[in-house]
Amino acid sequence: MKYMRTNSLKRLFSRKRLSFGDEFANPSTSIEEGDHHSERPTWKCFSFEEIFDATNGFRPENLVGKGGYAEVYRGLLSDGEEIAVKRLTKASSTTDERKEKDFLMEIGTIGHVCHPNVLSLLGCCIDNGLYLIFSFSSRGTVASLLHDDKFPVVDWKIRYKIAIGTAGGLHYLHKVCQRRIIHRDIKSSNILLTGDFEPQISDFGLAKWLPSQWTHHSIAPIEGTFGHLAPEYFMHGIVDEKTDVFAFGVFLLEIISGRKPVDGTHQSLHSWAKPVLKQGDVEKLADPRLGGAYDVNQFKRLAIAASLCIRQSSVWRPTMSEVLEIMLEGMVDEQRWKIPAEEEEENEEFWGFEDLEYDDEDDDCDSNSSSITSPEDSILSATSSWPQIVN
């Protein structure tokens, strides 16, 4: 793959306001009927002066996070809009071309998205470096909300809203977006939160487009975050929608348990949860800080969805469409998800069909409810992780 040089970038971004649909859309790509978020996103090519002034000269006090190859600064535009500026940092000459390619891949991927639960690109800047500009997420990341001691315990209503919204955003990327996008790094530190706790999937540095006629994509080297990697990806480099489904299952477990994806003993969250799910001791999964204050039916649905998502074999994991059905409606076909005896894997027994209650009167959370990846979590990451943004 050839790299696009600066002059090519400037030609691409020469117009003040662009629609990615005009530049990149595949006319033959269909979008599901009835989707309300399929309009073409637009973005702006910012001048360096604009983002320099907005961040007050990239002053250290405006630095809100760092990743492998990027820094994120908080900024304020002249019209009062708060922004986050992701700036690629300097590296050795051997990595500069890779960084430029990753920058173009990220802008080409995120430039297609238009959904309330996926972070939208406001624009970019290619003067004096490479920059991506996003709306500022005032409440930071789900990881900081769940695990930072300075924040109060997150109540169940907000957790449920975050889980449903993230699932909706991931379903959009897989099935509705103009391009079939595999994120490859779904985790709580890559889920940002708006002022009303609406989740937004961010950091598309590892994302891949998967042509509709392909069943999967083989990738090397393996990149991602320990504790979230699907077995087939970690062992064989195989990537498809089920790669994200596995990581989403870990994310669900983190939401309901309050535990980190990897604990102090380096045990992964999903390996801890599997025997608990198999035994059906659902209450043992609940975050003790909730004090039992959660909707039991919603909790069970999220736990069942998580147990299916983290299955060893991708064949026996649901799609995000099916995950949403389980989370919202509790629709589970026992025969559909029962693994045949000859294929049954250790600790893969599904739990709790008989315990799932159906409640049509569940009070779903409405829209008005009110990181840096640690060294042990990083695996061969060659792109910047969207940093933790805090107030």
Automatic annotation (TrEMBL):
<comment type="similarity">
    <text>Belongs to the protein kinase superfamily.</text>
</comment>
<dbReference type="InterPro" id="IPR011009">
    <property type="entry name" value="Kinase-like_dom_sf"/>
</dbReference>
<feature type="domain" description="Protein kinase">
    <location>
        <begin position="58"/>
        <end position="332"/>
    </location>
</feature>
<dbReference type="InterPro" id="IPR046958">
    <property type="entry name" value="RBK1/2/STUNTED"/>
</dbReference>
<keyword id="KW-0418">Kinase</keyword>
<keyword id="KW-0808">Transferase</keyword>
<dbReference type="Pfam" id="PF07714">
    <property type="entry name" value="PK_Tyr_Ser-Thr"/>
</dbReference>
<keyword id="KW-0723">Serine/threonine-protein kinase</keyword>
<keyword id="KW-0067">ATP-binding</keyword>
<feature type="compositionally biased region" description="Acidic residues">
    <location>
        <begin position="342"/>
        <end position="366"/>
    </location>
</feature>
<feature type="binding site">
    <location>
        <position position="86"/>
    </location>
    <ligand>
        <name>ATP</name>
    </ligand>
</feature>
<dbReference type="GO" id="GO:0004674">
    <property type="term" value="F:protein serine/threonine kinase activity"/>
</dbReference>
<keyword id="KW-0547">Nucleotide-binding</keyword>
<dbReference type="GO" id="GO:0005524">
    <property type="term" value="F:ATP binding"/>
</dbReference>
<feature type="region of interest" description="Disordered">
    <location>
        <begin position="341"/>
        <end position="391"/>
    </location>
</feature>
<dbReference type="InterPro" id="IPR017441">
    <property type="entry name" value="Protein_kinase_ATP_BS"/>
</dbReference>
<dbReference type="InterPro" id="IPR001245">
    <property type="entry name" value="Ser-Thr/Tyr_kinase_cat_dom"/>
</dbReference>
<protein>
    <submittedName>
        <fullName>Receptor-like serine/threonine-protein kinase</fullName>
    </submittedName>
</protein>
<dbReference type="InterPro" id="IPR008271">
    <property type="entry name" value="Ser/Thr_kinase_AS"/>
</dbReference>
<keyword id="KW-0675">Receptor</keyword>
<feature type="compositionally biased region" description="Polar residues">
    <location>
        <begin position="372"/>
        <end position="391"/>
    </location>
</feature>
<dbReference type="InterPro" id="IPR000719">
    <property type="entry name" value="Prot_kinase_dom"/>
</dbReference>
